[in-house]
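ok so heres the complex, two chains, lmk if somethin looks off
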Amino acid sequence: MTSSQLNQSDYDFNDTDWAEPCSYQKNHSVEQVVGPYVHSIICILGLVGNGLVIVTYAFYKRTKSMTDIYLLNVAIADLLFVAALPLIVYNELSSWSMGPAACKLLRGSYSVNLYSGMLLLACISTDRYIAIVQARRRFRIRSLPYSRLICAIVWVFAFLLSVPTFYFYTWYEPFLFGHNQTTPHYVCEFRFSDVSAAWSTKVAIPSTQLAVGFFLPLIIMIICYTAIIVTLLKARNFQRHKAVRVVLAVVVVFITCHLPYNVVLLYETATKFHHRSCDESDALQVAKTVTQTLAYLHCCLNPVLYAFIGVKFRNHFRRIFQDLWCLGKRYIAPRRFSRVTSEIYISTRRSVDGSSENGSSFTM
Amino acid sequence: MATSKACLVAALCSLIIISAFIDGTQSASCCLRYTRKKWTCRQLLGYSIQNINTSCDISATIFHLPERFVCADPSMKWVQKVMACLDERRKKAAAVTKDNVHSTTSG
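and the predicted structre for the whole thing:
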């Protein structure tokens, strides 16, 4: 071969001139830790929390109000999201061993659940705004058939937004440099038939995610919750400070979880086709991996922030444990029973706030 | 409560065990910028092409060196010349091996 005739001096030059293909070493080592370990913790917490919400609604609390239906749908979206998470992590670490159907289904369902979860949180904020700020007016929109219709629209909309993701994610064997490919290696990534489709879709998909999956819900939540806080502070109610704190917690947790990831995603999308060094690009991928994990954590916090914070919901939930206790032990100590009932009584008294008589479950 | 804790620990342990069996990830590498040095045909073994149709975001010509790779701008004149030269050399090499095969089978 020609190379054998070449001297070493033919290849001597600065490291900065090398411009070798980047293999994202740092990001891979971060993914090795975050992928199996952190994501499994998020998955377990999310399954337990959202599972309990769904079980509570299924067996104890018949969905009575509009907010109940939204909370149930958020729990379903989050549960599906965390259920798909270990499968995605497993496949990414095992060269997509589950094949092309799993690739499309997992990536597609990830996108559907992301959009529906975020849009439903915006729906909850709008529902609370109507219940608290516009309390005097009667809105037909706050009835059960309407809320079911709105949830159906959200799911269909989320599905439509995910169609490009479903279509363009492909299971294929990439070209690997310097690897003797003894076993075939597959990835599940975007693949386009022509360059112009690649140019537009590579920007369009993350842009839609940023706009509809983050900024739209963020703006709706900020407007609605600001109006709610203003109304609550005007009201003469001894519970108002707690209500304000809950509203602030919902907004602060949402921003803390989702803002870092979306800022990184925005920067990445804006500079998508720019040239950069391997170190810089690797650092960007590490930032994306870490902030994405933080965003996933929101799925585990939703049951606490929305469902378990409500006294009514907690009471229904407590009844599950009471019944399980009864099944476990045939007898109940009368002293213990009376303590539990009095506790429920006290907490129900506490739950009386401006909105509860209005049929909203915005109880704290 | 104790059983749920045990379940949690069991689930975590099984995930850790599963992850231990999984190979390290190796995804496709991407060219992110171009070399500033001009290469000549005789320094190189071959080339491959990176386009933006898959996970990479810039188009590039990847020159193969002994045990290394270097990314070049496919719109540059010298890159196109080197690619043409490498194509030529590959054709010649293919012709030579074909001739060899032909002569050995006939002879």
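quick notes: Chain A has nine helices and two strands. thats all i got rn
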